[in-house]
Amino acid sequence: MQQGDTISAIATPQGEGGIGVIRISGEHALKTAGKVFRAKNGKPLVMAGSHRAVYGHIVDEAGKVIDEALALVMIAPHSYTVEDVVELQCHGGLMTLRKTLELTWKAGARPAERGEFTKRAFLNGRLDLSEAQAVMDIIQARTETSLTMAAGHLTGHFSKEIQAMRHDILGMIAHIEAAIDFPEDEVDDILTYDIEKNVVEIRNKIANLLKTAHAGRILRDGLLTAIIGKPNVGKSSLLNSLLREERAIVTDVPGTTRDSIEEYADVGGIPLRIIDTAGIRATDDVVERIGVEKARSYVKEASLILALFDASRPLDSEDAEILKLVRGRDAILLLNKDDLAAVVTPAMLQERAGKDATVITISTRTQDGLADLTDAITAKVYAGTQAGQEGTFVTDARQAEILRQADEHLEASIRTIEASMGLDFISIDLRSAWEKLGELTGETVGEDIINEIFSKFCIGK
């Protein structure tokens, strides 16, 4: 990829819509756009001025009108990529956008790679790496809390935490180098005491950030949740209640759900990737048996299991099998149909499941108990972290691993101090931690890692 190239891509989801946007960025963005866009006032785009919308038409090489459009002109450095940018707002038809995009390529642009617009924003210093990654998180956010976390990263809340730690470490390195240059001052003991104290404080900050990794990953990617239970226990009704819509068919006939249904639900701001499975029971029906086997496999894959039991019917062998399936797993046991005469109590289910099991009584018909379920799920996700601070949460495995490695270098510096190995050896450990933390913001990260991160973006972003 050549950074000096002018690139173009469709920046809006493809399909039918009121508006579709072609984004052009690079040194020759205005020249390229000027070849495919004809302003109604007859003036060239280079005369439009920055941050102006110009009305006109998309035309082909022969001057034939393709579409009516607006051209938004943004002159460097006041644009998303810090380069000259033109965005052509066309009608959102698939053929219109494809034709316009092809015309920009014939006019001198090349197809943008995945995430290349945001990558240029990073390479040109407008965003650091954490902020750049947050762009896709904002686009893919499924709940308001997920959006809050992504927006916090985009506006630099997470980066500020990292930069503050790097600043403190760099200050310690500077003091060490000064002490090495002026050994006659004999401040080694005082200096190493202060360094050890400061390192412990930074390690505590890293530990607090790592505690957020579990919740951050879930808010970003969703929590894979399987709803299981025997037939006609209310699984599909629970799915509909969590989705707040009639997504699954609900009847009194056991075995209605033969295949798995997967949907995202916003439960207390947490995106649940919910799978409603077929009722687990012995059956001679070939199709239903396949569904039952898939249900068992989802139980193994799920991060959270919602196991339903019918409070109005005695526990039987099918319930016992479900209890066996969820034993040792992160599960919430739901005693459904508490609006009917109870045959099974929470205490009875707790006795069968074990004292550590979480049991909640609900009614999918009256919605009783669903608030308690939301609270229980929220407590599991936010364990050890504080809701409302999502803007500084660790959001993926890469960030968590970098923090762990930085902490290892800081721990090594303390061991070096305790071993009285000398200031220069302490400086080596601290500099390693400083460089490792720089990978989070992109200041010390290699090109291969940068390419890998932006390759996960969609084209046009």
Textual characterization of the structure:
Helix 1 packs across helix 2, helix 4 (129-140) runs antiparallel to helix 5 and helix 7 packs antiparallel against helix 14 (397-418). The two termini are 16 Å apart. The strands form two sheets. Strands 3-4-5-6-2-1-7 form a seven-stranded mixed sheet, covered by helices on one side. Strands 9-10-8-11-12-13 form a six-stranded mixed sheet, with helices on both faces. 46% of the residues lie in helices and 16% in strands. It contains 16 helices and 13 strands. The protein has helices at 29-36, 94-106, 116-123, 129-140, 144-154, 157-181, 188-211, 213-221, 235-243, 286-301, 317-326, 346-353, 370-381, 397-418, 423-441, 447-454, and strands spanning 7-10, 20-25, 37-39, 52-59, 65-74, 85-90, 110-111, 223-228, 261-267, 270-276, 304-310, 331-336, 358-361. With 461 residues, the chain is an alpha/beta fold.
